[in-house]
């Protein structure tokens, strides 16, 4: 999944996926540190994957599916329905992801949300 998101890595997608929000934001605003950091990340993905595996809890909510739903259907709230957050899913559906700000919030916090949900 990380390599698939790396294709969009110049906007930081793979960094958000691995829970590296600060560098994800930097990558987003600098086009992957002017594409140089994006290419270097191709070799750093295995280490980022190991770190994320240690940090986040597995469970019934699958990280990969949630990230795919957020990345491609986030404005419709489908990832929120998948996580069992029906009210906010409907809210996202009616407001196009709370006018985009909710989707940005989820890019920054999705791993924590899933880990918390899986912990329960």
UniProtKB/TrEMBL annotation:
Its main location: membrane. Keywords: Membrane, Transmembrane, Transmembrane helix. It is found in: Membrane. GO terms for cellular component: membrane. Pfam families: TM2. The chain crosses the membrane at residues 25-44, 65-83, 89-110. Residues 2-43, 61-107 form the TM2 domain. Coiled coil: none annotated. The lineage of its organism: Bacteria, Pseudomonadati, Pseudomonadota, Gammaproteobacteria, Cellvibrionales. It is a multi-pass membrane protein. This is TM2 domain-containing protein. It comes from the Bacteria.
């Amino acid at each position: 999944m990380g390599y698939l998101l790396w294709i969009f890595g110049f906007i930081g997608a793979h960094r958000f996926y691995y829970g590296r929000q600060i560098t994800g934001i930097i990558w987003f605003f600098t086009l992957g540190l002017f594409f140089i950091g994006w290419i270097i990340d191709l070799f750093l993905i295995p280490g980022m994957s190991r770190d994320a595996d240690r940090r986040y809890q597995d469970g019934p909510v699958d990280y990969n599916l949630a990230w795919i739903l957020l990345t491609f259907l986030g404005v419709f709230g489908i990832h929120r329905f998948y996580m069992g957050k029906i009210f906010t899913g409907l809210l996202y559906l009616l407001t196009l992801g709370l006018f985009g700000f909710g989707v940005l919030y989820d890019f920054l916090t999705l791993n924590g949300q899933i880990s918390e949900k899986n912990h329960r």
